[in-house]
Amino acid sequence: MSVDNTYQSLERELANDDPWRLDDNPFERERHTQLLRLSLSSGAVSNGLEIGCAAGAFTEKLAPHCKRLTVIDVMPRAIGRACQRTKRWSHISWAATDILQFSTAELFDLIVVAEVLYYLEDMTQMRTAIDNMVKMLAPGGHLVFGSARDATCRRWGHVAGAETVITILTEALTEIERVQCQGQSADEDCLLARFRNPERSSIRPNSRA
Predict the structure, then answer these.
(1) At how many degrees (to 10) do helices 162-169 and 123-136 cross?
(2) Which of 27, 71, 92, 99 is 20 to 30 A from 78 in CA distance terms?
(3) tRNA processing as a keyword (predicted)?
(4) Average pLDDT over all residues of the chain
C-alpha cells in the first residue's frame, strides 16, 4: 500500500465518530485493557511515549498513569481528535509526525506502539522505525508493542505484522511477556508483547538491514 493511499484511507476512517470501533468493540476494549496492563506492569510512568494515537481512545486510558506523556501521530486530524478527548490533562505533549522522523534527546521509560508499524512501506522502514524507538528507550525502560499477525497484515496489503516485528525487537530488547487477543472475526487476532531494554540503546550492528 502506497503512502498516499494509506493517508487517504486513514483520513476517511478518521471522519467517522468511532474510527476502527475502538470504543464499542469488545475485541478492541480487551486489546486496550491488555495494552494498559502491560504498560503499567512496572508501575506508574515517569516519561511515556505513545506512537500513533488514532482518535485518542488508548491515550485517554494511559494518560492518568503518566507523569509526562508525549503522543505522536502522522495524521494531524488524529492529533486534533485525541487532544479534544484528553483536554482535561495538561501533561501531554503532541507532535504531528511519524516514527521515522520523530527525534528527541529525551529517553522514555515507556514506549507504546500498537497497530502502527504495518503501515510502513517495507522492511527497511520497519527496521529504521524500530531502531529509532530503541534509541529513545531508557535503560531498564519498557516497550509495549501490538499488531495484527503477519498473515492478517499481508492479507490487508501490508508488508508484515506482529511476528516479524517481534523478531526484530528481540535483536535489541528482552521480551518479558506476550499476549494474544482474539475476537469473533478473522481480522480480530493480534499479538501484544512487552519488552525491556537491558543496557543497549540501539540494535546490534550485525543485525541485518
Answers:
(1) 50
(2) 27
(3) no
(4) 88
**Measured in whole angstroms, how far is the alpha carbon of residue 13 from the centre of its chain?**
18
- The answer to whether the Cα torsion of 62, 64, 70, 74 is positive or negative is positive
| Alpha-carbon gap, residue 48 to 173, rounded angstroms | 17
Cα–Cα distance for residue pair 66/60, rounded to 1 Å: 11
DSSP string, 181-208: EE-SSTT-EEEEEEEE--S-SS--TTS-
Question: Is residue 98's pLDDT more than 80?
Answer: yes
**Residues β-bridged to residue 68:** 47
199: exposed, middle or buried (C-beta count within 10 Å: 0-12, 13-18, 19+)? exposed
- Residue 148 · residue 192 · CB < 8 Å: no
Copy the grid coordinates of residue 149. Answer: 499477525
- Mean pLDDT computed over 135-142: 97
Output the pLDDT for position 136: 97
Of the candidates 146, 158, 130, 161, which has an alpha carbon nearest to the alpha carbon of residue 30?
A: 146
Reported as a single tens digit per residue, the pLDDT across 112-134 is: 999 999 999 999 999 999 999 99
